[in-house]
């Protein structure tokens, strides 16, 4: 028999994507810490606070009472019912249980929603800066992401005329993310109404409304869902949300989609052939999250608001950095354009935001993620989901690093 050197190959579609840059940045921090370096980690896209105790108890009860089996692919009726009630209570949106799908995290729901709808040649409109996974999930599912650049001047929000220009007969999805990761932008009712006016003229476009940071919006800003101002778009909108951020439950992997029955059923069909269903124990915990005491959310919001105010005042006072006060989420998107061209103490010229990130890591021991990962440069995303002590130390180290640069 002929022996060849051919190895079993991997799929070509993998070449279209990168590993998630924020996860990669965090992995680098872990590696450096293992080498004994003292790194202040501002790369994290997750709450540093713990899952509330009553949710932990619900998971323990589920485990001990035999709630350890497969569930329906769309999720348990108890959880889907709790989500229906949550949507009425928090969002003033009315859904039926049959219009809800539970996935193993919000990312999983987005993946399946795209897999259930995208064909070769389809386009997905993604305003920049964006959460890192939207374009790569579109690419994995044979579509082309169409990036529309928002600007610092418009608060990083998509304008109606930009949307109109980006839509083509091939547009399949518009991705809206409010509050936004990484910019912290929160769309107002009137901004969403103006976008809805454009969408009405293009009935072939699905809308993904990613509202996973809804609970972290800082007054006077308010979270509004596009469906609050344009209920007529309900038949083509998928609301994406979950427990990861609002209830500090990233590791439990529970997200949900609320949308028209035919899309929900299609996602459920795919889930039945991929993960079967989300973890039964995590689903029981999520019921407690959505139905139980909601006061931990207010507590977390207050903490994040104090941290946001602190970090914004410290960073905006540093020569070379500028930043908007984010209205939502727990990130600051720092404009580092004034640092480009400056020279580090070991004679490197900072040419782009990746260089600035590398410099802060090397010289200040502060890890952040470059704006390049979010489709807009020269910026850096700093997560303020860290303790006050770390934020204080980090801001000081960043200040010293900036002062050490020469023109
Ligand atoms: N959407 C946005 C904007 C996010 O930042 C994230 C996580 O970082 C997700 C969705 C997915 O969250 P999860 O898969 O943990 O539910």
Summarize the structure.
By secondary structure, the chain is an alpha/beta fold.
Any overview of this molecule?
A seven-stranded mixed β-sheet has the order 2-8-7-6-5-3-4, with helices on both faces. Helix content is 39%, strand content 14%. It is of the alpha/beta class. The model has no long low-confidence stretch (mean pLDDT 95). Pyridoxal-5'-phosphate binds next to helix 4.
Write the layout of secondary structure elements.
Layout: H1 21-34, E1 40-41, H2 53-64, H3 77-91, E2 100-103, H4 106-117, E3 123-128, H5 133-140, E4 144-149, H6 160-166, E5 171-177, H7 189-200, E6 206-210, H8 226-229, E7 237-242, E8 255-258, H9 261-273, H10 280-291, H11 295-316, E9 322-323, E10 331-335, H12 353-364, E11 366-367, E12 369-370, E13 379-383, H13 388-403
Parallel strand pairs: 1-11, 3-4, 3-5, 5-6, 6-7
Antiparallel strand pairs: 2-8, 7-8, 9-10, 10-13, 12-13
Bound molecules: pyridoxal-5'-phosphate (PLP).
Strand content: 5-15%
Radius of gyration: 22 Å
Largest beta sheet: strand ordering: 2-8-7-6-5-3-4
SS element count, helices: 13
Oligomer: single chain
Say which molecules are bound, naming each kind only once: pyridoxal-5'-phosphate
Q: How far is it from the N-terminal to the C-terminal residue, by CA?
A: 67 Å
Q: The biggest beta sheet, please?
A: 7 strands, mixed
Mean pLDDT: 95
Rough shape?
Answer: globular
How many strands in all?
13
Order of helices and strands: HEHHEHEHEHEHEHEEHHHEEHEEEH
Unreliable segments of 5+ consecutive residues = none
